[in-house]
Amino acid sequence: MGPARDRRKGPGRRRTDWTRDAYDPVAVRGLLHDVGHQMTTMSCLVEAVRGEAELQGEARRRMEILAQEMSRLLDIIAHGLSGELSEVASAVDLSSLACRVVQLVQIRHPASVVLLPGPNVTLEADPALLWRVLTNVVENAARAAGPRGRVEIRLRGGHGAAIDVIDDGPGFDRGAPGTASLGLSVVTSLVESCGGSLEFRSPPAGGTQISIRLPPACSGQGDERAGAPP
């Protein structure tokens, strides 16, 4: 009897071509469908744990954040399955949104992340779109800043709104591998979809500043006629 055949390398074995499938809309929707089922199960488990009376203090706060993140992720999956770009626009308090982003990022990264004092800015926008934009930018900044770094978020009002995210890391594209990621491409696409713009700067003191400019109505419908703060 000859040696056993390694079936993992046998002829005819199907191998997934990720380069091909990654941009196949049918494959992506199928993946979102399956992920959605698993996320729904996890969301139900989270809700069950939230009901436990023994959950107190910091543990309860973290569970509340987890529940919010699960809900947002399910919304993103639902949008992907429906083919819709965004939700119906509503009044969004940017200060409140930024505070929640700071809480979330500080759980994941040791860098100091702070929202600077400033005006209360409200924008007519898709809440899910703004959340995706801000979390991606602040996550990248915290990763680039490193364990002892600092990230500052500054809000500006006017005709529309502007959000500045400044970190004291080594500078854009100069950090460790992974500090600049696909997330920035996602952000650029989302911001441009609602008529906004994204600008990168290297302050004299070092680090990186990313400025997000948004029009008064930021619904993800690509209205380029609306203006944004200079």
Q: Which CATH top level class of the largest domain fits?
A: Alpha Beta
CATH topology of the largest domain: Heat Shock Protein 90
Number of domains: 2
Low-confidence stretches: 1-21, 175-179, 221-228
Fraction of residues in β-strands: 15-25%
Order of helices and strands: HHHEHEEHEEHEEE
* Rg over C-alpha atoms, rounded to the nearest angstrom: 21 Å
How far apart are the termini?
A: 78 Å
Largest sheet: 5 strands, mixed
The helix fraction, in percent, is 40-55%
Mean pLDDT: 75
Number of strand elements: 8
Principal-axes shape call:
globular
Name the CATH homologous superfamily of the largest domain: Histidine kinase-like ATPase, C-terminal domain
Number of helices: 6
Content-based structural category: alpha/beta
| Spatial sequence of strands, sheet with the most strands | 2-4-5-7-6
Any idea what the CATH architecture of the largest domain is? 2-Layer Sandwich
SSE order and pairing:
Blueprint lengths: L17 H4 L3 H26 L6 H26 L7 E4 H15 L3 E4 L6 E4 L1 H19 L4 E7 L4 E7 L14 H12 L3 E5 L6 E7 L2 E2 L12
Parallel strand pairs: 2-4, 3-8
Antiparallel strand pairs: 1-3, 4-5, 5-7, 6-7
Helix pairs in contact: 2-3, 4-5, 5-6
